[in-house]
Amino acid sequence: MAAGISVLMISGCATQQVHMVEPGIYKIPLVLPESLEAQRGSLEQSLLNAQRRLREFALGNGWGHFVEERFAHRAEIYDDQRSFVQALLTAAGADSSTELPKEVSAALEKGVFMSVSPAVYSRIYPEGIEEAAFEKLIAHEMAHRLHIRILGGNEDAMGPTWFFEGFAIYAAGQFSDASLPPDEVWKVVRETERGSYRRYAAVMRHFLKRTSIQDLVTRAGDGDFLDWLARLEP
């Protein structure tokens, strides 16, 4: 598809278009409440920057062809977490009473990127505050879809939580200063409950000193993944 070609999309009663502004980068129709309209320009730029961030990661690791097709055909950004959560549960076909983590801030469900606003994100997830935090949040959600594309659609091969979240964190460039001593790394690896994304970032960078991201992605779904990781240790 050449740059500038548009794809007709229908949202409610309005006709919207998805434009490819450059190879692999799309201007995604953005739905906002009135309270966020003044931020439309900056939010649209964040959507573009997030795609460029992910494209750079993919190209650098031999996965460029996986980002040629758009990850989202629409974006919805909410001015409060409650509205976002209800929209997410509806899109996912989940019960409206489903409990989600208190820090949940974004998702990409059925081709729709949904999130809270940058201000709400900073308030409910202060650990995530860093330079370009909101565009990294967007890139993180798209990175999960990139991961699935790399695996040929096999979500079961994404590996344990710390790894598939760690992959998205690494791809998005989040928490690049995170570090842990080796004994703490293995505590995280063996955890069965969801943990800190900052700690996941540190674990990913620990193992990326020992092997490639490509090998990690290939091996993460194997039953002996942790044994394989242990053999990488000096």
Concise structural overview:
With 234 residues, the chain is α/β, with parallel strands linked by helices. It is 45% helix and 15% strand. It has a four-stranded mixed sheet with strand order 4-5-7-6, with helices on both faces. Strands 1-2-3 form a three-stranded antiparallel sheet.
Spell out the key features of this protein.
Glutaredoxin; four-stranded mixed β-sheet; 234 residues; disordered N terminus; globular; alpha/beta; three-stranded antiparallel β-sheet; 2 domains
Describe this structure in words.
It is a single chain. This protein is α/β, with parallel strands linked by helices. It folds into 2 domains: 27-150, Glutaredoxin, CATH 3.40.30; 153-234, no CATH class. Helix content is 45%, strand content 15%. The protein contains 9 helices and 7 strands. The chain has helices at 40-60, 81-92, 118-124, 133-150, 161-172, 182-190, 197-208, 213-219, 225-232, and strands spanning 6-11, 14-22, 25-27, 30-31, 74-78, 106-109, 112-116. The strands form 2 sheets. It has a 4-stranded mixed beta sheet, with helices on both faces. A 3-stranded antiparallel beta sheet has the order 1-2-3. The protein is globular, with a radius of gyration of 18 Å. Residues 1-15 have low confidence and may be disordered.
